[in-house]
Design goal:
By secondary structure, the chain is mainly alpha-helical. It has one domain. Helices cover 68% and strands 12% of the residues. The protein contains 3 helices and 3 strands. A 3-stranded antiparallel beta sheet has the order 1-2-3. A hairpin with a 4-residue loop joins β1 and β2. α1 runs antiparallel to α2, α1 runs parallel beside α3 and α2 packs antiparallel against α3. The chain is elongated and about 45 Å long. The N terminus is likely disordered.
Length: 102
Amino acid sequence: MGTVHQLSARGHSVSSGSATLDLHSRVETETASLDSGHQAWLTRRLSQFLPATMRQRFVAEVMGNLGMCESQRERIGCMAGVVIGLPGLAWIMHRESRRPRP
């Protein structure tokens, strides 16, 4: 006979015979440990396109926004928005940094 596999969306567990794996806690633990490092790394790399005077503030604001996200999907959406919007933001900031101040 074949092995019976059950997937429970509510309990976030998978059972195969006698072995049960708690997916929710495992995935949360693994992504939480990787998230901040990878997102911080990407944010710092993206900040290199901005004027040097604005980089630290940009990183702090993006990381603050990511900290307010309640889910992995929301954090991914936030990072996608940053990546998509960065070329326009960089152009505006470089243009403003070259403008003479009165």
